[in-house]
Specification:
The protein is an alpha+beta fold. 27% of the residues lie in helices and 29% in strands. The strands form ten sheets. Strands 3-34-33-32 form a four-stranded antiparallel beta sheet, with no helix packed on it. It has a four-stranded antiparallel beta sheet with strand order 4-5-6-7, with no helix packed on it. Strands 8-9-10-13 form a four-stranded antiparallel beta sheet, with no helix packed on it.
Amino acid sequence: MTPRMVNATAAAAASSRTHPSNSIIAPTNLRRLDFATLGRAPMRLSLGSRRITSRDLQVVEATDELLHAEIPEPDPDAVASNVSLLRGFNATIPSSEKGKTRRRKTRNVDAPHMGLKKLGMNARGMLGDEDEQGETNDEIRPGDRRDKKGKRKPRPSLAADVKLGKEELGRQKDEILLDKENIHVRRSLINSEIDEIAQKIAALDALRSQLQQNLLLLHEEELELDDELEGVRERLAIEDKTLPSTNGNTSRTGRRRKGPAFLPSEHDDLPPGVAFMTLSGHTAPITTLDFSEPYGVLVSASQDDSTRLWDLCTGDEIGRLRGHKGTVKCMQVDDSTCLTGGADSTIRMWDLRRVGEDDEQPPLGDIPEIVDFEDALSERDSSKIRNGNTLVDVRAEDGACMRVLEGHSKEVSALYFEDTCLVSGASDKTLRQWDLSTGQCVLTMDILWAISHPAPSLHSSYSDLSSSTNITSGAFAVPTPPFADGSWEMYQDFVGAVQFWGYALVSGSGDGCVRMWDMRTGQAHRTLVGHTAPVTCLQFDEMHIVSGSLDKSLRIWDLRTGNTSETIRYDHPVTDLQFDTRKIVACCGENGVKIYNRTTMQQSTLSINGHTRPTEKLRYIDRYLASGAKDHTVKIWSL
């Protein structure tokens, strides 16, 4: 029962006793009926605007029983939940202090004044007979509270020899015990309120945490929308530029079925963080992979010296790129154009729409065509691709290859292109800039020269790895730290990654440095020092550079200051990464793919239905990720 119900019950009881008809709600023709009859009456009884229910009638009927019910004694160790409502009400009403007030008035009667000397002697029982006699002759004069000089005396406490009577003392004892019980009840009620407030505070804290999490989710969604809007704007700009020339290329088609740009309805139904497709076919660890659009075509290369094309809608292999003599170390796919760099020190440019055209063999009964000798010579010359001052022969099985770029003396380990500009890095310790429209190398940047003539560094101590790895002379090779499965290998890619935007070029190399180059002059104008092992991967945007290294760390560099703004440590070497404004996705020598949330600074791992050996390469677009690992497979994930 609540206090409001108790008050209503008491008021109803008082009204029922004073009402002439002993009823408070019955109409005139039912005033002599009891409550049981009223409860069975098929009518709506109301008092004012509130409807009277059968529960209210039951409470009114039980008023006398509730008021005269015997209340159990409170347990000293009980909590407020065991205290009855009426007991708590009696303990908190002002009348509960009447006994205390009466006892204080009883104690504060006037008594003869005793000095400190008498009080001390009386406590030790050393008062003489005269003092005792004089003390007994003193009279208690209530109201006489002034000294000889007429000043008002303070009211003394009750003397020990004043007798109150056994009945009065028993009464005071009962009142004191009752006051103690009231204190216990009030203490229990206060503790209950404190607990309730603590529970409310905890609930509010949980609600605040949930709201903060919702704010983070909204912030991430806003960033995602910004990225999507930027992508749409870039696509619109490209569409505007290429719209007049699209009519001339409509007849150039191949057998490869081009996948749709994006299937949001299918993608939204996929569970996040789960690998929903596995591309199996390679017989050695994956070395590189890339794709240009979700549900389109993915290109992957492996240490088995094969480069395969996959249909991401069906998961089937639809062709191969044949031409490189050795393993393909790096690649980039943009729409239907693919550039690959291999261990044969060459770079090849492919048209993915023509993959598989030359696999078609003519029937055995076809009649050979008779051609003129001069036509045959001209056709032979046209089957060669001019590369600088040399003609590179393109065999029949390389029908998808549009151009071969030769210039590096060792294996090509990194490349990046936009439009007709390509920058490549190789183990010959050079960076080369190419014009894809002509196939000419227009600029060569020597990393050894940059090492011997270091650019200004913001760090006082230049950490040069050349002395420990002998990168200035001979072949470059360093052992990698152990991966999660205990395996290790010799890392021989001196240039780990390159990327440019406009005239700004960034490279990561085997000396552990991240260099910023000016492509107009070919000079390195800034060196970022911090990694203690070769840089294997990097990416930059308008504000930051993110680099990964064999020293088991990711570093986020601030382009405005050149300093490291954040360092993320891992247990194994970092072999590949990609980031946007919301997250950093990295391969860190484990079976799963690591995701670092840049908003909440929390780490998560993609492992459900994932790889069985450490991942080494990845690429993602929007919420669609592809990863390649040492288990010879490529996994497609939903982020």
